[in-house]
Write a structure and sequence with these properties.
Elements: H1 2-5, H2 24-62, H3 66-84, H4 101-128, H5 131-155, H6 163-184, H7 193-204, E1 227-231, E2 234-239, E3 256-260, H8 274-277, E4 282-286, H9 304-322, E5 327-332, H10 334-345, H11 347-352, E6 353-359, H12 377-385, H13 391-397, H14 402-415, H15 422-425, H16 429-440, E7 454-455, E8 459-460, H17 464-467, E9 477-481, H18 491-501, E10 506-510, H19 518-521, H20 523-538, H21 546-549
Parallel strand pairs: 3-4, 3-5, 5-6, 6-9, 9-10
Antiparallel strand pairs: 1-2, 2-4, 7-8
Helix pairs in contact: 3-4, 3-6, 4-5, 4-6, 5-6, 7-16, 9-10, 14-16
Length: about 550
């Protein structure tokens, strides 16, 4: 008995061999396989790096603006035929001043004129025609131009310059024509503003006008459920009350509710909430400046304050242009940071906001002093790339494979969504993927705020828990979170902030069976809790909300 209980007694099997713990062989095998994979990756890293560079170079050339490519194509044709086109049959190299020189030069001018006409036609088509019209008109000209250049290069027998130089110039002429064709028709990155609008309309139409799921909405000309606007450069979806219920009929003006999406989102993500909320509010869903259907100016901010000003100034310009005096301001995730910063910018801004709604907000906690080092490999890669690369750049990098990659990601993501998620129940992940692809892959602008406003782990560079006070945020605040354990934003941070600043007119609520995208995961409960919370402060000015205020939050 003593030998069994002793820690120093070695364990042996029945045959006297040293005992091996169960599963040690399996773990050893896994370790060997992992080491083998790492060794292969290290050995192949130069090849992988070279392929990535080549793919990136191709993508860069094919994504250059058609106007630039047209100029380069014309210049390359001029240089090509000056160097390689002076000679014709029976003309000796170097015989520049003889009777046959003019014939060779005339042929060169014809070639230059041909390429110039093709390039100019591409520029015109890129400006005035739709994408389908470009394809029909440009393809025959493109094929003719490529075949002509190849035939011209093959037919020449003598050259004024070295054969290598002539080959290079002909190759450049072909490359620019191919790149112009691909760029003008958006074949590498197919995102366009028109396609984004179409994808957003398709997503909004996935909910019927009367709330029946999966049925197409009525035509906007016959029964407008929403109206698309662009005010002060901000893409806007206006959702007036198309239901005309007894709640709002004849009861005066309704309050304004402004919805601000989170990072990587857009107006289309509020598709499941617009109908219900528009029964009680004049709802405006707005895209950030530099995102969605909004204008996309160059984003030059290099600090948190400059990046915040980029969005806050855009939101204020939109409010002034809309003539909105008072509004309920609701922001999701990083959009909540923008809304809070808008309020804190000045007392005048704060007076415009009747109620601030923070939907699973980022920035309510400080980043950890010592980040974990035992993170999975995927999270470590994300943390490493965070200051340098945006998710949108990765999708653009995939080029023509970007739409398929986005659909695959959304399909996988939807499989992890709660069963209450409308995206999963209605089977519209493909519509959401198309919308997000065109949203993400237009000209980069506001996406770069990820590097200045956010930190790895979706923390804020300037935590709201340290900057928000009862003085600079005097209006009532509602915090809405997903279910604890499903929403990676922790509602306890909001509760701690409320207790810390003694904010008596702030409340925290959670939506069951929902994660970070709670307004999509469980839109029915989200709308109900949002309305019930807002009714508590709006019922004095808007009697129609008194019945809602009596409901249990």
């Amino acid at each position: 008995a003593d030998s069994v209980d002793s820690d120093e007694t070695p364990l042996v099997d029945h045959d006297g061999a040293p005992h091996k713990p169960r599963g040690s062989e399996k773990s050893s095998g896994n370790s060997c396989r992992t080491n083998t994979i790492l060794v292969l990756l290290v050995l192949l890293s130069p090849v992988i790096f070279a392929l990535v560079l080549v793919w990136a170079a191709i993508g860069y050339v094919f994504s250059v603006h058609p106007y630039v490519l047209a100029v380069l194509g014309i210049l390359s044709s001029i240089v090509t035929y000056i160097l390689c086109g002076y000679t014709v049959d029976n003309v000796e190299p170097g015989s520049f001043f003889n009777d046959d020189f003019s014939a060779g030069f005339d042929a060169s001018l014809f070639d230059v004129a041909l390429v110039t006409i093709v390039c100019l036609f591409f520029v015109v088509w890129s400006t005035v025609l739709t994408m389908r019209g470009r394809a029909w008109c440009a393809t025959p000209f493109f094929l003719f131009g490529v075949i002509y250049v190849i035939a011209k290069a093959s037919a020449r027998k003598t050259w004024l310059v070295a054969e290598t130089a002539s080959t290079v110039m002909y190759t450049l002429s072909l490359v620019f024509q191919v790149a112009l064709f691909v760029s003008a028709l958006r074949l590498w990155v197919s995102a366009t503003h028109e396609r984004l609008v179409d994808a957003e309309d398709a997503l909004l139409s996935s909910q019927s006008h009367d709330g029946a799921e999966g049925q197409p909405a009525h035509d906007s000309d016959e029964d407008p459920r929403y109206r698309r606007l662009k005010v002060a450069g901000i893409g806007t979806i206006e959702a007036p009350n198309a239901h005309v219920t007894a709640l709002t009929r004849g009861l005066g003006e309704r309050p304004v509710l402004v919805l601000v999406h989170g990072y990587g989102g857009g107006n289309g993500l509020w598709v499941f909430n617009l109908d219900e909320l528009s029964k009680h509010f004049r709802v405006y869903a707005v895209d950030w400046l530099g995102c969605g259907t909004s204008d996309r100016p160059s984003f030059t901010a290099r600090s948190y304050d400059d990046a915040v000003s980029f969005f806050v100034d855009g939101l204020e310009a939109w409010r002034e242009a809309m003539g909105i005096e008072r509004m309920v301001l609701a922001g999701h995730s990083m959009g909540a940071i923008i809304c809070a910063e808008y309020v804190m910018r000045s007392p005048e801004h704060a007076q415009r906001v009747q109620h601030l709604v923070m939907i699973s907000p980022a920035g309510m906690s400080e980043p950890p002093m010592h980040p974990r080092r035992d993170l999975p490999l995927t999270l470590r890669i994300i943390r490493m790339l965070w200051p340098h690369v945006t998710p949108m750049q990765l999708i653009r990098f995939l080029g023509p494979f970007g739409p398929s990659a986005m659909r695959s990601l959304l399909h996988i993501r939807s499989s992890f969504m709660p069963r209450s998620s409308h995206v999963r129940r209605l089977g519209i992940a493909h519509l959401m993927a198309d919308y997000l692809y065109h949203n993400w892959c237009l000209e980069p602008s506001g996406e770069y705020a990820m590097h200045t406003i956010l930190r790895p782990g979706v923390y804020s560079a300037s935590p709201l828990c340290n900057t928000m006070t009862t003085e600079n945020v005097p209006m009532p605040i509602t915090f809405l979170y997903g279910s604890p354990g499903f929403d990676f934003m922790d509602m306890r941070h909001a509760q701690e902030w409320i207790a810390q600043v003694n904010k008596l007119d702030a409340s925290v609520h959670s939506v069951t069976h929902a994660g970070h995208q709670l307004f999509m995961d469980n839109p029915v409960e989200f709308d109900r809790k949002l309305l019930s919370s807002l009714a508590q402060t709006l019922q004095d000015d808007y009697p129609a909300f008194r019945g809602i205020a009596e409901q249990e939050v």
